[in-house]
Amino acid sequence: MGRAGLTPGGIADTAADLLDRGVPLTLARVAEELAVRPPSLYNHIDGLEGLVRLVALDGLEELAEVCRTAVMGRAGSDALHGLAAAYREYARAHPGVYPLTQVTRPGDPDYEQRAARILEPVFALLTGFGLGGDDLIHAARAVRSALHGFVTLESWSGFGLEIDLDRSYRWMVAALERGLTPA
Length: 183
Hints:
Elements: H1 8-20, H2 27-34, H3 38-41, H4 47-71, H5 76-93, H6 109-127, H7 133-155, H8 165-180
């Protein structure tokens, strides 16, 4: 029997916190943080790979909610800029978990379902730009690529020029918007 109060969700939350603090994820480190012995974790999770999966699933759920909230009640430019700001804020607040939300896990229906939830608000805002069919998919990929590319480079300190990053981010989103607006 596992330690009272120890749950898969609590273990995943601890792992996510460690990742976001830049601590390399090992079961020993998670167990230490929870003040239990590493074998106790196996009563609740399926090893390190299972733990990483749980953290990714939770991260996908959080990011989907952030995206949905950001576009709710908004349309067009306001929705796009709201989504972009919320997406960047999530990536900044969760530098360890965010990368786990960007890796596909084919054949994992829970992962696929949660990943699809992130696309729902993206598709909704892009439909507001008059996009549909293949263009909707192309536009979603372009938006995701731009936002992910920027937040990833930012997290890696990949921007060395002395121009305000916030202004650059807003400029990029405005450029995306111009590309999404039908001529």
